Amino acid sequence: MPYSLTRTEDRVTFRVDPEETPTRWSLLLLGLPFLAMGALLYHYAPDVPVFSIPFILMGLASGLIAFSDTRPAEHKCARKFTVTHDGVLVSEDSQVAAQDVHRIVVDDPLSAPISFAGPALAYLTLGSGGAAGFLAGEMGGRVRKELCCSVSVEAGGKAFVLGAGLSPTSARGLATDVAKCLGFEVKPHIAG
């Protein structure tokens, strides 16, 4: 589970760990023929390595990409925060009062805008956007995009990120748990 919570009498402490990105085996398998071709060219024409080097480099590059995590840095780090009925303690020097929370945002780069309305002060919003640099032009990137959701609390014109590097399901679950801890009622609502 990408996040865990610890309850005490008056507070709930959340620990959010980014989900691990899977290895893209298809990209790795795509690189194997390039490596084989480069090895064969080098074997049969060792005096002219200029023909084999590009194939070997393409095979090695596809292997590196298959095992790399290309999400933005903020989607790779673990986060810890505490929620009480009074508000959210994001860090030692950053606290958001419950009455100041404008909305709880689930930023899911793959979904259409859908909202979940809480009481007058809180809205859970699923919107597009987010890690656009990560989303652009990555081969087989849909698997990685699905692990690029984040949850933040907006108050006073600022967004405080509570967790990132999550799947859409985990992000919605985290946002719902935070809303419930703040005492907000969460009801499905279609934005119009």
What composes the largest sheet? Answer: 6 strands, mixed
Calculate the mean pLDDT score and round it. Answer: 75
Coarse shape? rod-shaped
Sheet/helix structural class: alpha+beta
The arrangement of helices and strands along the chain is EEHHEEEEEEHHEEHE
Gyration radius, in Å: 22 Å
- Distance between the amino and carboxyl termini: 33 Å
Low-confidence stretches: 112-140
With strands numbered from the N-terminus, the spatial order across the biggest sheet is: 10-9-6-8-7-11
In terms of DSSP E residues, the strand content is 25-35%
**Portion in helices:** 25-40%
Structure overview:
- The chain is α+β, with helices and mostly antiparallel strands.
- It is built from five helices and eleven strands.
- The chain has helices at 25-44, 52-67, 132-135, 142-145, 168-181, and strands at 3-7, 12-16, 79-83, 87-91, 94-97, 101-107, 114-117, 123-127, 149-155, 158-166, 187-189.
- The strands form two sheets. Strands 10-9-6-8-7-11 form a six-stranded mixed β-sheet, with helices on one face. A five-stranded antiparallel β-sheet has the order 1-2-3-4-5, with helices on one face.
- Strand 3 (79-83) and strand 4 form a beta hairpin.
